[in-house]
Each structure stands twice: as C-alpha cells, then as structure tokens.
Please model this.
Amino acid sequence: MKNLKKWNYSYSLLAVLAVLILVIEFASGGKLLTVNSLTNMASQMPELGILSIGMFVVILTAGIDLSITYLASLAGVCSAFVLRWGNQKEMNLVFLFLLAFLAAFLVAMAGGILNGIVVAKIGVHPVLATIGSYTLFYGIANVLTSGSAVSGFPKEYRLIGKGKLFGFLPVPLVIFAAVVAVAYIMLDKTVWGRSVYMLGSNAKAARYSGIDTLKVNFKVYLFSAFFAFVAAVVMTGRYSSAKSDLGSSYLLKSVAVAVLGGTNMAGGEGSLKGVVIAACIIQVIGTGVSMLGLSSYFTDILVGVILLGVLLIKHSGKTKQR
Model:
C-alpha cells in the first residue's frame, strides 16, 4: 500500500510536469519543445538534480545539509586552482583532469567527514552543524579566491559541462543519469539504504533492531559530500571557472526539490523517482519564465506556490486521517 502511494504521487508529479510543458509550449509559441531548448534544459538541470539528491538522502534521516552547495563551491575552487596550474605547466590533460577530480573529491570528503563527526558522532543538531560548516566552507573559499573567480582552464574541460556525446546527448545529463543509478542502487539495493529509511522513520527502533545508527548517519553525510563533489565537477565544467558562491543559489531549491518530490522532512519517507521529476519541474518552470520574458523572480513565486500547494494537500490528508 505504501509503494502504491509513492507511485501515485510520482504519477501526480508527472501530470504536473506534463501540464507545465503544454502550458509553456503554448504560451511561448512553440519554443519550449525545440531541440535547442531541450538540450539547454538537459545541460542545466543536472546541477540542481545532483545537489537535490544529496539533500534528499540527508533529509531521509530527518536531518538536513545546509552546507552542500558551499562544499561543492569549495571543492570546485580547489579543483580550479589545480586546473589553472596544470594548464600553465602544459600538463598532460588526462593526468591533469584526474588530478583536479582528486582534489575536488578529497576536499568534498573532508567536508563530509566533518559534518558526519559533528552531527552523527558529537550529536549537534544538523541545522546548527551544517550552518557552521557552510560558513566555514564559504569563508575558506573566499580566502583562497579573494572573492574573485578562478579561471584559466584547458578548453577541453568545458566538454564536461557543455559537451555532447554522439553529437546530441549532453554530457551533464549522462553524469546525472549515472548519479541517479548509483543513488538507486545504494538506497534500494543495499542494507545501508534500508537502514537510512529506518533511521529516519524511528531512530530508537532502528537501534533496538541492531542497526548502528551512528555509522549509518555518518555515511549519509559522506554520501551527500560525494554529490557535492560531482556537482562541483559539472558546474566548473559548464562555467569554465569557480568561485566561492558557485551553485549557492541551489541551496534552498535543493530542499524544495526534495520536498516537492515527496520527501518527508521528518524523515523515513521519500522517493528518488519523485526527486528526479521535481528537479525537472523546477527546470521547466525556470526555462519557461525566461522564454516568456518574465523576471527570474517569477520562478521563485511559481515554485513556492506549487510547493505550498503540495504541502497543504499532504497536510489536509493527514488531518482527515486523524
């Protein structure tokens, strides 16, 4: 019955997405469903989608990671310095890219370990802990860059953010598909994934059933940090630069995507499928607003209206059950 409800909600999200596409296609005079428009959306949406999945996994445990976008920024800045240095030295591109990926990965994992220790091991509330860490990450990135952008990458690096496979398939979309597959396997096909849902549903019951809740929670923040690393790679590739606030606009949007996707902020309930569809909905709204020549603030308004509508429907359903 629980799976049926999840499926029904996912179908509802698909219906919302379909209606939005039809309305925007009609209002824009047929500009939305063009090859160029679809390609642009497929290149832009993965950034938000990747960060939203990282946020989604943490929220499943009744936590939150307010540092994820700033950790991605810091990881991106560190990889950018490596890329600029290697480009000046005319280093072998394959080795240079691997070195840059390693730098971003190590920085992201260090941030994940910090969050995991403070939240899981020490027991600081996730909101307070990740506000502290996001301030730390943002501050370090600002000191390293002096508030300016780091650029000077090899031109080939842009293929990660703007390249196309087979001439039509955006590379960021391929990376996003791989990330979704990894998240699906980890959450639905492993003991750790089932433990994440149990931890969010009832932490005390999870402990009594023999689950090492501290270890599970610690790994959740490492998992979130991994998504910050992937997002950093995609964003630095698309912008060909990195700065301290790279992707910071996605912070609240990633929470909105998780909630819109059906994730319970109290933990224990959520669907990866719903999160992916919700990311597509927000991307379509943003693209539609731009096509219609409206202010970008209308994107926030529309997302807020849809999000509040979803929350009100869910809340009214729970009220009736009582």
